[in-house]
Amino acid sequence: MDRGLPYWDYLTTEVIPTMRQLLPLSTARADNFVGGVSMGGFGAFKLAFSHPDWFSAVMAMSPVVDLTSLPQVMPDYQEIFSGPLPNQYLEKLAQEAPPAALKSLRTFYCIGDQDILKPQNARFVRRLQDQGTLTLDLKTGPGDHDWLYWQEMFPEMLRWLLNVRLSDGAPLKNQDE
Question: Who has greater pLDDT, 172 or 107?
């Protein structure tokens, strides 16, 4: 945070390593996943793109992907970012990541058709697909930027994650099969 504690450092250099020391948690990429909702979806992408060797899957529900939309959804954004908001921040992180690790990172991505962030997410998805470096399972449909939509999508995301985990790196089967 610009005007606060260094939460990113705390998460990446203290919380995750300490949890792995204290608990019998696997460090194998195939056993680790990251996910989030709204601004947490941004954080999940940031973590996965910054450390694609740590995770085999990332899940994002209605993520904030264009930081210039923050004033609409997060009035206290100045606590995190000072000055002008970064443009295409996540796309730049993805471009800097090792291509092979990023290509093998599975992504569950959902956003409702009525979500205020849908236009920004559509542009973000197009840019990621144009880069061709991310395996992306995109789900859209009726829904807004709210817990009613996320609650509906959560079981689908868990089924997807189970399929990813059981596939052990093999191509995902159609969930309808």
Answer: 107
